Amino acid sequence: MNEKEIRKILKAVESGKASINDAFKRIKHLPYENLSFARVDHHRHIRQGIPEVLFAEGKRVEDVIAIARSLYKRSRKLLITKASQEIHGSLKIRNAVFFPASRIILVNGEKKKKGSVLVLSAGTSDIPIAEEAAVTASFLGSRIETVYDVGVAGLHRLMGTRTSLDSARVIIVVAGMEGALPSVVGGLVDKPIIAVPTSIGYGTSLKGLTALFAMLNSCVPGIAVMNIDNGFGAGCLAHKINMV
Amino acid sequence: MNEKEIRKILKAVESGKASINDAFKRIKHLPYENLSFARVDHHRHIRQGIPEVLFAEGKRVEDVIAIARSLYKRSRKLLITKASQEIHGSLKIRNAVFFPASRIILVNGEKKKKGSVLVLSAGTSDIPIAEEAAVTASFLGSRIETVYDVGVAGLHRLMGTRTSLDSARVIIVVAGMEGALPSVVGGLVDKPIIAVPTSIGYGTSLKGLTALFAMLNSCVPGIAVMNIDNGFGAGCLAHKINMV
Amino acid sequence: MNEKEIRKILKAVESGKASINDAFKRIKHLPYENLSFARVDHHRHIRQGIPEVLFAEGKRVEDVIAIARSLYKRSRKLLITKASQEIHGSLKIRNAVFFPASRIILVNGEKKKKGSVLVLSAGTSDIPIAEEAAVTASFLGSRIETVYDVGVAGLHRLMGTRTSLDSARVIIVVAGMEGALPSVVGGLVDKPIIAVPTSIGYGTSLKGLTALFAMLNSCVPGIAVMNIDNGFGAGCLAHKINMV
Amino acid sequence: MNEKEIRKILKAVESGKASINDAFKRIKHLPYENLSFARVDHHRHIRQGIPEVLFAEGKRVEDVIAIARSLYKRSRKLLITKASQEIHGSLKIRNAVFFPASRIILVNGEKKKKGSVLVLSAGTSDIPIAEEAAVTASFLGSRIETVYDVGVAGLHRLMGTRTSLDSARVIIVVAGMEGALPSVVGGLVDKPIIAVPTSIGYGTSLKGLTALFAMLNSCVPGIAVMNIDNGFGAGCLAHKINMV
Amino acid sequence: MNEKEIRKILKAVESGKASINDAFKRIKHLPYENLSFARVDHHRHIRQGIPEVLFAEGKRVEDVIAIARSLYKRSRKLLITKASQEIHGSLKIRNAVFFPASRIILVNGEKKKKGSVLVLSAGTSDIPIAEEAAVTASFLGSRIETVYDVGVAGLHRLMGTRTSLDSARVIIVVAGMEGALPSVVGGLVDKPIIAVPTSIGYGTSLKGLTALFAMLNSCVPGIAVMNIDNGFGAGCLAHKINMV
Amino acid sequence: MNEKEIRKILKAVESGKASINDAFKRIKHLPYENLSFARVDHHRHIRQGIPEVLFAEGKRVEDVIAIARSLYKRSRKLLITKASQEIHGSLKIRNAVFFPASRIILVNGEKKKKGSVLVLSAGTSDIPIAEEAAVTASFLGSRIETVYDVGVAGLHRLMGTRTSLDSARVIIVVAGMEGALPSVVGGLVDKPIIAVPTSIGYGTSLKGLTALFAMLNSCVPGIAVMNIDNGFGAGCLAHKINMV
Amino acid sequence: MNEKEIRKILKAVESGKASINDAFKRIKHLPYENLSFARVDHHRHIRQGIPEVLFAEGKRVEDVIAIARSLYKRSRKLLITKASQEIHGSLKIRNAVFFPASRIILVNGEKKKKGSVLVLSAGTSDIPIAEEAAVTASFLGSRIETVYDVGVAGLHRLMGTRTSLDSARVIIVVAGMEGALPSVVGGLVDKPIIAVPTSIGYGTSLKGLTALFAMLNSCVPGIAVMNIDNGFGAGCLAHKINMV
Amino acid sequence: MNEKEIRKILKAVESGKASINDAFKRIKHLPYENLSFARVDHHRHIRQGIPEVLFAEGKRVEDVIAIARSLYKRSRKLLITKASQEIHGSLKIRNAVFFPASRIILVNGEKKKKGSVLVLSAGTSDIPIAEEAAVTASFLGSRIETVYDVGVAGLHRLMGTRTSLDSARVIIVVAGMEGALPSVVGGLVDKPIIAVPTSIGYGTSLKGLTALFAMLNSCVPGIAVMNIDNGFGAGCLAHKINMV
Q1: According to the model, what pLDDT value does residue C243 have?
Q2: Is the alpha carbon torsion for F13, F18, F19, F24 positive or negative?
Q3: Which CA distances in Å does C22 have to A241, D111, G3?
């Protein structure tokens, strides 16, 4: 252990067995290990609140189960994204809730909800990604409100959410196809907006690239954009902003 | 002339100089020329109103001048798209007006304006393409109204055009960047909408491809989409629809 | 209800219970709701004829059934696009006809057919999309004629449709592969043409992008282009133009 | 003015000159104008701090000058992005500072600086975009710290900024080429990170698309991504988050 | 029938029942039908040898069977490309041979083989497309030689085919991955070369686009390039050149 | 010289100075040089008629002049593609003709013209590339006919070229924008067609990629496709086919 | 055999049966065969160590089995990449080990391991490709060390591998998503680095293109990049460098 | 200074002023600074030989001059890539040699040349990039041989380089257009090959992407690929491999 080594060097100095020069040289050559153990502590602090999240896509079911149980044991909290019915069935953790559309498994999560994050979706097909964002931010400790199916082709629906728009600290806007909703919302409020393009659409939607590019080109300055279908990322960012 | 030939064959039949079999064979072998003369007449009818249009891009100035004068002589009308100050200077046709932003030269045009075409632009940078569409449709004989700078980031500006939206028979919507305006307009009216993406934007606007793809993916069904920066095409289509 | 609120304010003014200043302030703060109720009426008018259409792709069968029945109840008309045999089997609405190639379910539709929309397809593989366009426009109330398999490699087949070309008010041209048919048709007539690229082809057809781009670059000015495989959109636009 | 109109209607009701039914109908037909005047006020609030920003790209110098002076007159503040030496020369506003690399013209800006925004750049070539972000956020009222040239190929340089990383509320990371810096920074802190890809690089950098896509795919969840070279947008978002 | 109509008109002229003017007008209005019947004859001539080819991809089995039998009845020859075991099983035409890798069904074909077409493949995975080209050209009447697995990574294999290279009139080169073989072959001979890219490869092979683009950029001038995996087209072109 | 070496070895064997074993070993180790001198002869044969062609793009003027003069000295023939006025001015070879649009410099060329190559262009903007193809094939010894501006939007113009279509052995079709002309020509004749996409067009023409992809996806089987703007390659291939 | 032929010619010269001129001509016409036999020997040397590798993708199971057994018989070593459980089950070679994640079948391999190749993976999902690289290099005779899951979001994990980094002669870095790890490793060591992008990621990872492009744009000069998921190629290159 | 801090802590331990526990805690919190000073030393070692390289693209001339002089002062060696005549003119360092085609400025460089790096170019237009690679590797201390213009269309030229191929330790292959040369070279030798795609070509060469993708898809396993036109990177990697 690095801790041991440093303590040994310090003891040698204390006991006069090592000169300061010698001790300095030995400490100087330990930077990486040094960093290594430092980072473990620091790391835990950094990722405070997110360590219990597991991305299941492309992992074997048995591996997911093993990691999930180990994570759960530590904190009695757990969030698995891109999960499956099969994982949920094999997990055997009480209170584990499975959201089939969003493919999320949730166990407990932060109890005290703070601040306010509003999650909007343009269409009904965008709801799974919106839900992924909402569950994530809620799991991390943000208070959540969701309003779905308020796409730009029927502005009156969006206008009906005015109170929600006004009371949120951060707004997540989930939209596929032409990805126009973040621009319209951005014209109505002056708070941070997180845009999540979805792969909903066909032909020139290019599996979400068109919505992504449209959001990056919004005529409203300063919209935060996520990767396609990345509801989880949006939830994390919203929570971080909400906690600023 | 083909007409002469056919008449000659018919006369030969009438006068008994040719058998029906011989005459049939000769006529049978004329299909292309046949089509050719038919098409000349038909063609003139088809393109009624558009023959005096000249696309100047990639042509040498002297060639443009020569064709333009010849076109003008026939009908005393002329429209040159993607023109230049230099062409305008050398053209020497009275009444020739040059629109520098849109790079159009206009001489006369249809005097009687019919119906009603509304041309909207999202930003001020989109105005040259919008103007190209407006001048084209007007040249062909459509009555035109233009409202510029009504992008989605400030919906109240668009809302202020409600009377115009209601009274138009066809609406041309010109927008760059995220190309969201046609969807919003399409949610407000039930008449034909022609969307023109522009190359305004940078980075992921991909020189207009993003706006184009967004318009093709509009959540409003049935929006007609043009090539990038193709104001001329939008003017032609709007006029054709206006004349239905 | 908003109407009630405004009437209440007006009554208060009428009865002297509220000053004009107070009444003004209260009305001023209602814009969205105001818009909202306005839009409801307006909206119904706008989408007149299209409200009974349901896009089934990516929705769960039970949800599609539920929405479909609710839509059908309102108007005894229904159109489901991108449907499936399974949906048709579970729908249990009399007269519901399923078009397997086009994946459309049709119930009734507008009885009075007006005007004239011609639907052409380049190849036999393009027929499902052409049929989607034709069924849609017919459902909305347009009189429809369809001519299939008239691609550019055999011009004589197209030439045989001359009467149809001449009598239509709007023409929908459906083509995959090189997408050349709209240009050729556009050289023969002077009426609005709606081009629908299909994903038919392989290799550099790029799932329809090549046909799409070819149509947007047509040497015939003013062709309206739809998203890839968007027969439904073409049917909507054709109907709107047919009704101008 | 709409206000006048509504007051007139209310007066007519008060004076008994108009029935409630008539008054209601007249008010009902004003929703857009209603919204319009509402939005003017609201809009000013929304965009509080940003109205004096002008995007000069693609606008004629004389137009930029005219708009800039009008904006400046209102608030004695002004920010012009993508400006030029020529614009600066013609502007004739005292205190106007031109940043040639970032192509920004700054006049005054918010005096009270709040919170803390850290701006990092990976390379020296990324500095103009980083500076654009920093000037923007500062103009809007955020306290700014900048550390440049801390790319991932020399981690020790980044490690030397630890105090800055720890004290910032929001971090903007500007990087071209492989765009790796935001991921590394994201592994060190748990605060909101805004990643700005630049067009620095050649070949497969694809004018910044590679850096953009890399940032959107970061293994650190919840990084906010901007369009390529969009330092201005990053400055706006950082300020909004800083003000939450 | 058009022939009948024209003969009727001619008879009317002959018998004096129609004036030349009337007859001319009636003939003038028949151009398309005129073309139509002309094209039928001409068309048969044009496509001489190819009419019995059927593209099965994307067609229902029962439709393929029906068309195939009708084609076969006319000429006792048949070629079905992109076919399946199922089609072959249901076809019930004696002598029908199925090539499973190339997915071709062949019945008879031109008996007299003329000229000489050499078909090379770079790898063993390219053989199905090479075989498709070879079977097609042979079916149309070209004499065929095939040499497979002579890719550029082992030049000695290619060098061993020198006699074949020298005696062929046309050479088809089928290659996936980096698509380099046509350039090397083109450096060795001065006869027409037809390059067929295949979708063999992964990652940046981009499903054959890389091989396609490489072939179009060959440093050997004048190589004819086909669409990806288009062995059939290569066979047709080789036969046409072989017959010049 | 290798020839010398081999003769020396053979002489040594003849005179008994070298054993067969020694001679064999020495010859065995010469394969490359062996190939080398063989290839020189063979190479000359292979490229018969093409050795005097020089591609000037990206080469310095002085280098082009030097190589050009050396090539010219050998055969008194010369073709420089992608040349410039400056090169022509400095070349100082009598009879050198410069084609400014096609950027070709031609000196003499094969005098005896054989066979027949028809070159068609869709638009007038495609003429430079068509001319490049025509001059190349003519230089190599093919008899050339050119017909320009016969695009698909006016089929009657194409129909007027029927005699030319029928008498050619090979047809080069040059087209930009949607690239539809090769398909239409391919439906009319059964001879080899070489399609050359041009970079004419804008927006989704993608600098010629759309025309290229459309041609590769032609519904007419067996069209030979060239790289974008590669008139020179088309001329080479046409000549090779013409000489088969 | 060519050797025989040459010896025969030499004998004829020796015995005076052939003149030097005749002998020269006959030898001159043998270049390719000459090359051919030269290349056989050379070739064996060149590919020394790699001949027993078989790429199974896209080949039929029975073919793979046949080739594999033949390869194995020659050298009692065998490596099959992109294999399957089914192939392993049918192979019936003792000691054949199947790596299911990497889809490799290994039989024996070089016993003496030399030098030192370090294989790093950024995430756990990248392990199959890393393992493919490691197994390949080991099979060819390189000593291998593997360290997995040391992505840039947790630098301390990477720092913990310092001894491994320092002792390796070549380092393979396997990473998907944003592909940043090679740049960070490249900043820590001055030895050859081979970067392998994987298709891990979604949305803008573009199936590995983003990681590939990021690696090609690394700010660390001189990183060797492989095709997406090409662990086998990385193993080959690492071994070649390790053996320099 | 960190050194000071650590010495202070050690002194406090030595003098008994601090307990080991306290000292440990204070050292534990210094990891970054620790790393920082460690890395400076280490870093110098790492980049040994490359520190004097400066990338001039996109930097202002005066900045380049300043950095260059500072670099030169340290080691009397200097390499500037993507330089210009103007920089060379202003540099005023004796012995500075400017390579105009490669845009490199070289001052001195490693005197002792070791090992052997062979640089091949496919065409004459690829020479500037090949020269950039050669000058770089030579500057770093590798012995260099260059052979240019040995493209695949004339294999005999490549075959003439056999001795060079055999004697090199590493081979750099520079090629544009179809990028086929690395595959052919890779079939002839079993040593590390570094492929550099160039942007030479037009149309579907896509500014070098096609050559890049072709090289990544080479049928020869284990070719190291560089970014487009990245001769500098190839020189660095070749030197690193040469020094293994």
Answers
A1: 93
A2: negative
A3: 39, 38, 112
Q: E-chain residues within 8 Å CB-CB of H203?
A: 216-217
Name residue F55's beta-bridge partners: F81
Among residues F178, F181, F176, F128, which one has the least CA distance to residue F154? Answer: F181
Q: What are phi and psi of C17, to 5 degrees?
A: -70, -20
The more confident residue out of E20 and F227 is F227
List pLDDT tens digits, range H208-223: 999 999 999 999 999 9
Q: How far is E193 from chain C (nearest CA, A)?
A: 20
pLDDT < 50: residue spans in chain C? 1, 29-49
Three-state SS at F6: helix
Q: What is the pLDDT of residue D193?
A: 97
> Are F181 and F175 within 8 A, CB to CB?
yes
* Assigned token pair, E132: 């498709």
* Stated length of chain H: 244
Question: Tokens representing G18?
Answer: 């052939």
Mean pLDDT on D101-130: 93
Name subunits touching G (3+ CB pairs < 8 A): A, D, E, F, H
> How many CB atoms are located within 10 Å of the residue D230 CB?
29
pLDDT at C187: 86
Angstrom distances, CA of residue F83 to CA of A9, B10, F79, F144: 75, 57, 10, 22
Chain G residues closer than 8 Å to E155 by CB: 35, 39
At F51, the pLDDT band (50, 70, 90 cuts) reads low
Chains contacting B (3+ CB pairs below 8 angstroms): A, C, D, E, F
Chain A residues inside the 8 Å CB shell of B219: 122-123, 151-153, 177-178
State the smallest CA–CA distance between residue H32 and chain D in angstroms: 5
H130 and H200 Cβ atoms separated by less than 8 Å: no
Lowest mean pLDDT among A23-32, B40-49, D89-98, H192-201: B40-49
> What's the whole-number mean pLDDT along residues E7-33?
73
Q: Which pair of structure tokens corresponds to residue H55?
A: 């990338």
Chain B nearest-CA residue for A151: B219
φ and ψ at residue E45, rounded to 5 degrees: -65, -50
Chain E nearest CA to H190, separation (Å): 11
10 Å Cβ neighbour count for G46? 19
When comparing pLDDT for H157 and C169, which is higher? C169
Q: And the tokens for E166?
A: 């020298």
Q: Number of CB pairs < 8 Å for C and D?
A: 59
Q: Which two tokens stand for residue B240?
A: 């054709």
Name the residue among C123, A188, C30, C238 with its Cα closest to residue B152: A188
Phi-psi sector, D154: left (phi>0), alpha (psi -120 to 50), beta: beta
Query: What's the CA gap between F113 and G192, in Å, rounded?
Result: 59
The strand pair at H142-147 and D170-175 is best described as unpaired
Which residues of H are less than 8 Å from D203 in CB distance?
197, 199, 207-208, 212, 227-230
H169 to chain D nearest CA, in Å? 28
Mean per-residue pLDDT over chain G, rounded:
85
Structure tokens at F214: 């459309």
Q: What is the pLDDT averaged over residues D127-152?
A: 94
- Put simply, the answer to whether H184 touches E210 (Cβ < 8 Å) is no
ipTM value for the complex? 0.82
Query: What is d(CA E177, CA F5) in angstroms, rounded to the nearest whole number?
Result: 41
Rg (CA), chain F: 23
Mark yes or no for CB contact B202/D229 under 8 Å: yes
Q: Which of C155, C203, C204 sits opposite E39 (nearest CB)?
A: C155
Cβ neighbours of A60 (radius 10 Å):
11
* Strand ranges in G104-176 using DSSP code E only, listed in sequence order: 104-107, 114-121, 142-147, 170-175
* Whole-number CA gyration radius for chain D: 23
